[in-house]
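Exercise: predict the fold of this chain.
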Amino acid sequence: MHNFEVRSSELLLDSPIIAVRRDAVVMPGGEVANREIVEHFGAVAIFAFDGEKIPLVRQYRHCVKQRLWELPAGILDVADEDPLECAKRELQEETGLAATNWSLIVDLVSSPGFCEESIRVFLATDLSEVERPEPEHEEADMQLEWFTLQEAVDMVLRGEIVNGIAIAAIMTGARLIESGNTGRSTDEPFELRPTSMAERRKAAGLHADMKRL
């Protein structure tokens, strides 16, 4: 199989939550072609199930200028943070919940044609209420509602849920629960987790919050 060697890379944009670089890549036949890549920290999402329902958040997304139904989720923007610890924090911040039992549902790549973003989706069960921090920015406008598994699946099929991460997680999570599967181990290596931007930010001395350029 062909080795897609990178001859050179150029950083075109470096902003808080994304960066853009241009790689010169050797194609089959020897031609060198440019490929623009959106760098990302990676993210986590949480399919929290109380035995009957799951919480979904409705959040404004400026890219599409709409409020979208999504799972609780967050960016892996703390250097070397374990994805499970990030998921626990995001679940508390967005829903005021904690979970005793955690497992892995799926890892997914959102837009592999141009973006490094990958997402680890966790199943959280045995839920309890905890103190929720004061929300900021878009999260201050966030709506939280609970839906049965069938209601969530039907929302996907009716086109009411269009966020790709939510669609993948709801359909796989519902299938997992209906089949009696408990999910995979949270210790499974997150091999798809992006490293380009994180390694560059760490080298610049950013660790607690790599978004703060």
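Check your answer against the key: Helices lie at 83-95, 149-157, 164-178, 196-203.
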